[in-house]
Each structure stands twice: as C-alpha cells, then as structure tokens.
Amino acid sequence: MLRGRTVPLLLVLWAYLCSHGDGLRALKRTTGGRRGAALTLTGQDANGVPLRRSKRGWMWNQFFLLEEYTGLDNQYVGKLHSDGDRGDGSIRYVLTGDGAGTLFIIDENSGDIHATKRLDREEKAYYTLRAKAVNRITNTSLEGESEFLIKIHDINDNEPKFTKDPYFIHVPEMSPLGTVVMQVTATDADDATYGNSARVVYSILQGQPYFSVDPNTGVIKTALPNMDRETKENYVVVIQAKDMAGQMGGLSGTTTVSITLSDVNDNPPRFPKSLYEFKAPESSEPGSTVAVLRATDADIGRNAEMNYRITSSDGPAMFDISTNRSTQEGVITLRKPLDFERKRSYTLRIQVENSNPDPRFLRYAATTDEATVKLIVEDVDEPPVFDRVSYVMEVKEDSAVGTIIGSVSATDPDSSRSPVRYSIDRRTDMDRVFNVHPGNGSVFMLRTLDREENPWHNISVIATEFNNPRLISRIPVYIRVLDVNDNAPTFAAYYETFVCENAKANQRIQTVSATDADEPIGGHRFFFSLAHEVSGKANFTVRDNKDNTAGILTRRNSYSRLQRSTYLVPVVISDGDFPMQSSTNTLTVRVCTCDREGNMQLCNQEALVLTAGLSTGALMAIIICVLILLIIVVLFAVLRRQQRKKEPLIISKEDVRDNVVSYNDEGGGEEDTQAFDIGTLRNPEAIEETKRRRDIKPETLNPPVRQTVVLPPAYRDNSDVREFISQRLQDNDQDPTAPPYDSLATYAYEGSGSVAESLSSLGSVTTEGDQDYNYLSEWGPRFRKLADMYGGEDSDGYRDS
C-alpha cells in the first residue's frame, strides 16, 4: 500500500531525523529500512490518563543491492549521515569492513556509498561493513562505530544443474508398470528464499512412452509393463530441469539417463533342429566324443545355462551326455566300444532344460525342449581280435624241442575276414626259447627248458592281417614250466665234522639234512644210506631218521689222530619221487683230541683252522690277498728307487755335449753368444782375457782377471782338459756377476787318438777353401760318398775359393 509513496516519505523522515536525532543515521533509497516517526502521539486511556509515545528513530542496520548490475556508473548503495554533521565540512565519514575501498567506496564529505563492481550473490551473498564519523581536524570519533550489512538481492541468473551427467542404471526386464528406475537431482545456485529462481521442475524430453519422471521429485519410473530385453535392451532418456517453477522465461538444464534392461530367465532353451545326424568310426575309444549339439537360449549369462540328458536310446548304457559350461553345448560320449559289424546306427532322444529356472515365468511357456539324434557307425579296418585277453599255458621241463605247448587264436572283426598271421615279439623272448606257427597260432618250443632256472616265461604273440600288415594286435602268453624230478638231493649245508679219539661205538657225531631243487607236489622225502662199496669196511655208519635227516655214527671204539687224521664218509641221498634221483655226498670227519666231556682240544693244523671257522677256500683267498699286497709294495719301492737314480751327464765317450747351464732366468736371446764360449774349450788359443757378458749392464760387471793358458801343440793334442775345466770352475766360483744360485756346466771332450781326428767344426777354419778333403778317399768304402762330394775337383774344372 505504501510502495508508491516510499521515496517522498523517506525523504521527509530523513529530514526530520537530521533535525531531531543525535546519532549517525542512514537512509536507503529502497524499502529495506523500517520507518519510525519523530512525532509525539498523545491521547488518553480509558481512565482518562494522558498517553505519550514516541516512535523509534530510523533503523539502518542493512542495505540491499541487486546483483549483476549492468549500468555504466557505479551502483548507488545508500547514504550515511551523522546528527552532528552541520554541513560545514568539519565531519569526515570513514567506511571499513568487507570490500571497503575496493568493492564499496564512500564519499567522506556526503556519506554516499557506491559499489564499484558487478556483484554476484552466488559468489558472496552479503558484506559486513563498519562506519563512523570523525572530526576532520582532530580525527577524533564523534560517535561510536556502527556495523551494518549490504545484502545482495538475487536475480535468476543460474540454470539448474544435475548432480551427474550422464546417469547409468539397470532395471530388470519384464518389470511391472510404475517400477522405480532411479531419481535424478538438479540444483539451482539462485536464492531459494527469494522468488522462484531456484524452484526446479522436472520433465522428460526423450524416452517416452517407455519411461516417465515425477516433475517435483525427479523420480523416473517405467511407463510400460513387461518390457522385453530380447526385444530392446538399451534406452536413452533425456530429463530437463527448469527453474521459475517451469514458467516461461525460466532457465533449464538437461541430463542423459542410460537405462539398460537386465536379463531375467524368461526364455526356455530351444533346439534349432528337431533331428541331428552324426557319424562316428567304430574305432572310437570309450570316453571319446561322438556328437556335439547346442540349444539356443535368448537369455544371457547364468540365465542361459542349460542341462542336457538322454531320455531314450536304442543302445542302453552305450552313451553319456554332459554340458560344456563354457559353450553350453551337449557333448555325447561313448561308454562302450562301437562295432560296425554288430550294430550300424543308434537313435537317441535328447532333452534340454534351464539350469536356473525362474518360477515367475514357468506358466508362460514350456521350460524344456527335445531333439532326436541319430548316430551312424562307420566301418573301420580293425586289427585282429584275440578270443581271450591273455593265455596261460603249461609245459613240462623235460619236454623235447618242438613240443607244442598250446595255441592262440585271433580273427579279423571286419566283414572282409582277412587271414591272420602270427608271430612272437622277440623283445619278450630274447633267448628264442619259443616260436609260434604263423598260420594256426600253435606255440612250440625251440630250446629245452629248466624249471629250476626259470619257472615262468612271459611272451607276447602278435597277430597281423595279411591284407594290411600295419594292423596288428598283441596278446600276453604266460607259460608255466612244470617240475620234473631231474635233480638229485644233496647236503643242505657244508658240515664241519670231527670225532674224538676216545669216542665210543655207535656214538652220533653229526646230523645231516638234504635239499633238492625240485618241488614235488607231495613234498620232499629223502632217504640216507652209506655207500654200498664201503659199507663192509666202514669206520662210520649212517642212520636214517625218517624225517629227511640222518645221523652219522661211529662203528668202533677209539680213533688215533696220529695214525689217521681224516676220514671220508660217502653218504648216498635219494628222493622219493619218480624217476628217483640220488647222489653220493662225501662227509669229511677230522680226528681230534677231546676232554672227557667230548669237547675238542686239539686237531691237526688244517682241522684247527677249519674249527676256527675258516674253510680251505677262505684261507687260500686270504693268502692270495696278502701276496698281492706284497707284490704291490715291492713294485712301488722299485719304481721309487728308479726315479731317484740320477741320469749320467755323459752317457758315452762318443757323446760330445756343449756347455749346459740350466736355471730359471730370462736369457739374452739369440744375441747371447758370449755368455758361455765353448770355442775356448776346443781352441785354447782363442781364450780371451776379459770377455764381458752381454746379458747384464756393463757398469755392474766386475769379472775376475782371467789368465790366458797357452799349451804346446803336442800337449794340446794329447793332454786332458781336466786342468782347463778346473780353471773354468775357479773362474765361475770367483765371478761376482754369476747368478745367485747354483748352475751346472757340462764339458765333454772327445779324446785323442782318432784316425779322423776331431769331427767338430768348432776348431775349423772359417773358409771352406782351406780344407783338403782328399784324405776321405783313404778311409774306405764307407766314406766314399763324402770323398766324392768333397775330395775331387768340381765338374767345371775349378774349386770355389
């Protein structure tokens, strides 16, 4: 009601307050302040008492300012005025606080406040400032500091914005009408408390008629029932949010909602065909795959899993079916071998169903499907088949070579009935003891048998088709060798038997038993007796105990070790089988001296050794080992002695050797020709007094003075070089430059008296022309070749000079 007269009224109040008020006052050019009256209102109450009430002064605690001001001048905010301002310019207005001096400026003379920049309420909604009036001269406050607010009035300058863009959501297919999909939310940065700038309304721009949105809440719902994923799986819905309550002129924003229908198990599996036909060779092994079929299901994932089963078959227990979980295929496998000659085709009825059916959709359609599978068996050229899985044959060990032990039989299972050829796998009969007839499969012997050596023989017989030798079959044949009484019994052990010299007649000195390599069915029965040829003059007798043992008894009193130390008792052992086998075993009895209790005290040397537990063979082995050790020791000693023996320096007088020095030091190489001068040994005239070594520095040399030895010709020709060698030894001993270790110098001299004199070239003259080789022709036929080469004139009639 007062909006049209606001400005004149405020001006009147401002003038009144300036003339009557005592404090700092501010007026706003808008209706933001609250009005008061400077007039005094009078009256009387019900009792006639006079009333007096003065209205409050102007309240200026806040100003209002529109955001996003687009004018060219600074935006006027309001005016400050102090009651003490008389208009003479003595008062100065000061503004402090948020944005003072930058965003907001004040005219210090008039108190007018202006905004220097465009303000955005979404950036800052209000500013807090403080104002005071000070004396321009003294700079003292005339009044206390007052605080006030500048609030930014909102305008609709922000469009609604969704919290996400885009949205992704899944909703189950076949959902009923009105199923909540999701809720979208848009926010508006404008002031929700002022007008409709922030009041948002939702609407759907794209996605109808499948979905709808609530205009106030933004909840998206299905608008159609039973949407099928298999028909359409993905939907794009565009939602708009508009402020100003959706009125014209409002700002709007959009978002995209991607809705995907998730799968439910609403489709049963189906076979693409009602009849399937497969082929499988009859050679297929049990457990192998013979057919693979697959049903289709419009669902996906877990809802598309299915199970297969055989409902009927004309081959009971012939086949199995399983589901390949990675491909959802039905895999038919064999349980038994196929045989083309016996049955050439099979018919099966296969059923498929969902592994995880959804009860909600069971009433809509059949949940299973069936198909017929026909399996055709293909003929394959198969190897021969034996009528057994193995053969066991028996033969007596005394059977003759060529005896037929048994026979094997194999046939070609194919319709061609190819003949079969038999042979033995020689890897199982390396000794070629058996053979098989290639035509009829009879197994016979090639060598004699011995049950005691090998009671069983395991061989393999091979059957091969004549028409196709690559097709073979093997069968194991176990041959048992039956026992025949062909081994005579013998002593069960080696017996160490002795008799005391003071033994009595009929005294048992030993109990013997027997063993037999044969194995009679009824067990062994041995008979013991003394050999017939010695029974009349025997010193001992044999008593059969009827339990496969026998006792050795004395036949006279007392035995003399000195007269006879050993007795040989022949014992005949025979078995009770047919044909009877017997053998004569000799028992050695030693005569020993015993005490009264019959304990042995003394026997001959051999008997003592045997009594101590060593047989003659063991004693010989020990002796041989000792002899071998002695031989090894002797050979080792001889070899060591030969290694220690030094090799002579000069093997023979005819062996002329140079000066040999052996030491581990680096020599001077090929130029080191003066270290050891052998020429001085052969030509004493050529001995130099001071020959320096070339393998060390000259300044370090301090060789001893060496004297020249001059010998007369006769003495040089016939004398020994012992004196010269002694001189050389003395020179080496006194040489301070000699190596700091021992050295070996070897000198050899060929001697004197040779007809050919010395053959060494060390003492020869330097030129060949001075030599006269005519004397070679006088040495005989052995030197004729040399005489022809060097003794005569050249073919050209001249000699080299």
TrEMBL record:
InterPro entries xref list: Cadherin, Cadherin-like_dom, Cadherin-like_sf, Cadherin_CS, Cadherin_Y-type_LIR, Catenin-bd_sf
Keyword Membrane: yes
Signal peptide region: 1-23
GO molecular function: beta-catenin binding; cadherin binding; calcium ion binding
Transmembrane feature ranges: 618-639
Nucleotide-binding is among the record's keywords: no
Any one biological process term the GO annotation gives: calcium-dependent cell-cell adhesion via plasma membrane cell adhesion molecules
Domain of life: Eukaryota
Keywords: Calcium, Cell adhesion, Cell membrane, Cleavage on pair of basic residues, Glycoprotein, Membrane, Metal-binding, Repeat, Signal, Transmembrane, Transmembrane helix
Location within or outside the cell: Cell membrane
Major subcellular site: membrane
GO cellular component, one term: adherens junction
Topology versus the membrane: Single-pass type I membrane protein
A Pfam family of this chain: Cadherin
Limits of the Cadherin domain: 82-162, 163-271, 272-386, 387-491, 491-602
Gene3D superfamilies, per database record: Cadherins, TCF3-CBD (Catenin binding domain)
Known function: Cadherins are calcium-dependent cell adhesion proteins. They preferentially interact with themselves in a homophilic manner in connecting cells; cadherins may thus contribute to the sorting of heterogeneous cell types.
Protein name: Cadherin-10
Organism: Salvelinus namaycush (Lake trout)
Source organism phylogeny: Eukaryota, Metazoa, Chordata, Craniata, Vertebrata
